[in-house]
Amino acid sequence: MKTPRHGLTIRLRLTILIGTCLILAGSILLGLTYLLVRNNLNSNPNQVRTEIARRLGIDPTRLRPAPSVEPSSTSAHSRHAVVHVLFKQVQQEITDNNLHRMLVESGVALAVMAVGSIGLGWVVAGRMLRPLHTITTAARQLSDVNLHERIALDGPADELKELADTFDAMLERLDRAFMSQQRFVANASHELRTPLAVMRTEVDVALADPNATVGELRAMAEVVRDATIRSEALVDGLLTLARTGAARPSDRPMDLGHLAARVTDRLAPDADALELTLDLSLESAPVRGDGALLERLVENLVQNALQYNVHAGWVSVATRTDADTASLRVANSGPLVPTEAVAGLFERFRRLDEWDHHQGHRGFGLGLSIVDAVARAHGGTATAEAQPDGGLLVVVELPAAAVSREVALARS
Q1: Are residues 313 and 276 in contact, defined by beta-carbon separation less than 8 angstroms?
Q2: Which structural domain range is residue 224 located in?
Q3: CA 269: distance to chain centroid?
Q4: Closest among 374, 370, 321 to 349, alpha carbons compared
Q5: CATH assignment of the domain containing 268
Q6: 285 in Cβ contact with 319 (< 8 Å)
Q7: Are residues 230 and 258 in the same domain?
């Protein structure tokens, strides 16, 4: 929707400013010229003598200036007085006529210059503001179907070029974010469709059989329950991702070592059930952030390490602080991970068949993407590396914080 304009446009204001400056400069120049011409006319007696000689009908060369001494005769005195009065009168008339003619001609020239300067200012202002019009048109036509278009403004590297390039960079980020959102929604819809279809099929089969036994109904209920649990896990993961991207996390003192100890204590029975060895090296690693999100980060990494493993394998969890960086390292034994696939493991809904079919289950592909989102929300990074003998090493690095009393109490 085009916003209605109120007041003068920028182009009109620039035109008025340029025209006013040129008119003011012309007026000042006219005033100086007027003063110089008047002084020159007052100090130029030759023109006056020429005009007097013309009026008297004599040769200008015969007309001499009056002597500086008083004349001796009465006739000479009278003639001198007449010439003196005539000289002053002619001098004033010539000065007035020349100044009047100069003012008229200069006024006409100034008026022509004013009109020309306003027209030139209008053209120059329009040319200078043309890139802004291009940017405005692009912004007005922006929609979800043409985010790939760019202004690509040509011209010198001035402020307008910088504005256009900044706008193009913003469009690039919006395009990537919109495409990512579209993929995210499509994948989420696909993942939710599967458990919902399972639940509906089980319920339809049960309702279609009026003689269904209690055992069959219980089996149907168990399938529906498992599908519901799967759907809840997916929704929970989606909400966590939305939470990390919607707002800045809280800034409370935490300790990655304490969080890792709490998570591994809680998941130790799962490791025992899978006959996995937990190798813990948990040093103090103070950070600042959202405790719930950071604990979810640690839990996702440890759960993945337990879930995608081999019989009688191992899981290593270590925390430490190095200079201004607090790190969490989670490694595990497991199936071989292709090196070329490691870079995409943090993408949402990215799964590896080697992992999903190894233990006979299929995840959502959200675990590591949540880890990456939480790490970035806290100003850190998450990287992964394939182990030569199988399994994966994931390293999360966050800005370290000074140990505070709250963290010390949390560890005690």
Answers
A1: yes
A2: 159-243
A3: 49
A4: 370
A5: 3.30.565.10
A6: yes
A7: no
Instruction: Tell me the per-residue pLDDT of 263-294, one tens digit each, with 9 for 90 and over.
Output: 999 899 989 998 999 999 999 999 998 888 88
Do 136 and 54 share a structural domain? yes
Concatenated DSSP letters of 153-166: --S-SSHHHHHHHH
Give the Cα separation of 7 and 407 in Å (integer).
59
Q: Tokens 């011209």 appear where?
A: 155
Residue 175 tokens read as 């395009």
Which percentage of the chain shows pLDDT scores above 90?
Answer: 16
Euclidean distance between CA atoms 205 and 186, whole angstroms: 28
Q: Helix, strand or coil for residue 168?
A: helix
Q: How far apart are CA 139 and CA 143, in angstroms?
A: 9
Same-domain check for residues 52 and 170: no
**381 membership: H or E segment, kind and range:** strand 381-386
- What is 257-284 written as a DSSP string? HHHHHHHHHHHHHHHHHTT-EEEEEE--
Which helix (H) or strand (E) covers residue 18, if one does?
Answer: helix 10-42
CA distance linking residue 102 with residue 32, whole number of Å:
12
Please check whether residue 313 is in contact with residue 277, taking contact to mean a CB–CB distance below 8 angstroms.
yes
Residues 258 and 231 in one domain: no
Q: What share of the chain is helix, strand, coil (3-state, %, to 5)?
A: 65, 10, 25
**In 230-367, which ranges are E strands?**
252-255, 277-282, 286-289, 314-322, 325-332
Sign of CA dihedral 170, 172, 173, 175: positive
Count of C-beta atoms within a 10 Å radius of residue 312 = 10
Same domain, 170 and 120: no
In a domain, 51, yes or no: yes
Burial status of residue 285 (CB atoms within 10 A of its CB: 0-12, 13-18, 19 or more)? buried
Is the pTM higher than 0.85? The answer reads no
Reported as a single tens digit per residue, the pLDDT across 304-347 is 899 888 888 999 999 999 889 999 999 999 888 888 778 778 77
Query: What is the number of domains present in the chain?
Result: 3
Q: Is the pLDDT of residue 47 over 90?
A: no
**Cα distance between residue 396 and residue 392, in whole Å:** 13
